[in-house]
Amino acid sequence: MHIDIPKNVADxxxxxxxxxxxxxxxxxxxxxxxxxxKPQDWDITTSATPYQIKSLFSKTIDTGIAHGTVTVRMGxxxxxxxxYRIDGEYEDCRHPKSVCFTxxxxxxxxxxxxxxxAMAYSPNEGIIDIFGxxxxxxxxxxxxxxDADERFNEDALxxxxxxxxxxxxxxxxEQKTYLAICNASHRIANISCERIRVELSKxxxxxxxxxxxxxxxxxxxxxxxxxxxxxxxxxxxxxNHIYTVGMHTIKAVLAIKKIYKGNDEKELRxxxxxxxxxxxxxxxxxxxxxxxxxxxxxxxxxxxxxAREILRRLKFDNYTVGMVTRLIKYHDYRFxxxxxxxxxxxxxxxxxxxxxxxxxxxxxxxxQSDYHREDKLRLLRSAKESLDEIxxxxxxxxxxxxxINGKDLIKMGITEGRQIGAILDTLLDEVIDDPNLNDxxxxxxxxxxxxxxxx
Length: 455
Fold this sequence. Notes:
Blueprint: H1 7-18, E1 23-26, H2 28-34, E2 43-46, H3 50-56, E3 60-64, E4 69-74, E5 77-83, E6 85-87, E7 99-101, H4 105-109, E8 120-122, E9 126-128, H5 133-139, E10 141-142, H6 148-154, H7 157-169, E11 172-173, H8 175-184, H9 193-204, H10 212-217, H11 221-224, H12 226-232, H13 245-259, H14 265-277, H15 282-285, E12 287-288, E13 294-295, H16 299-313, H17 318-330, H18 339-349, H19 354-366, H20 373-392, H21 406-411, H22 417-433, H23 440-454
């Protein structure tokens, strides 16, 4: 089989070969190429030792030289080149205590996680596939290289990676591999939150986010995200719903991918995590009335608090934490046909989150029962149209849109900070109710009167 590899990669392999060393593109780049996907990175494995690698190239970086990895710079790009190696004993369910270099490509490949990631390629030899990776690619199977229990005991993150790959590629997890995940699920406790966050995020933004069910069934989320397990187990006996909280959540996450039309991965990640956690507080807010109908009063506010704790636990950046928690806090707001009410809501929630909030709300509604669904979607569409009209008309939505500011009040002789703030808040409140009042002369006069009343 032939793979089109970048010129820089071919040149690096050629330099190794001309100097008597083996070298191959390896791992995910080979897998993705065979799936007709564009690889994000091109990794290279070689029989040359790290210091031999450094001697062959003028620009290198000692990325992880103790473990055999050197970054080679060529044509303005970086390529990780790693010496064939055999991993020593794993002592923390993630990293080998030691590595030793080997001259055998087969030894290097058999230490890798899954068959589809254990293939190598060179222009001269084609595909090197010792463990049946091509067959598993064709059949859509995630299978461990060698003994699955050993692979997961070596690196517990592989348990979650198996589920993530299954979701991303729409593959099945081979039975022995699946059972080994169940047996090793407790070991995920040894993995850093950052690593778990990366795998979960990749799964959430994929077309196979429903594999979150596998993360629950295998016991993985019971270790690092017990809130998800409670969501999976919480019923919603309510006319607005036909699924458990967990299944409703999965439907909402999948809907995000269909509704979001952008191509910004960070935006998609924020939307997907918002959908994933938007009902996280329902299990703790559930109540049941005398008719047996379940309600979840206060779950948006409580959910924002719980989501903040979860996102902090997973070491998310401040921007993502802020955006996701705000979206969750306001996701259950019910729009009316009132522009005044809409302006007030936007002033409270923030104009910056509105495009995201509309997407989250639509995904939420689409994952509910058909009870009043068309009415909900109509009000949502109407709110989006009304907001566009409000913005186009330049109507006031926040303090910066007000045609008066604190400096104007100081010039009038109002110098006390709290009084300035109170006057501006009152003016903004009035202008939001009636945009026609956002006239500078009127506002100055009104501010004088308010100052006199407060004197």
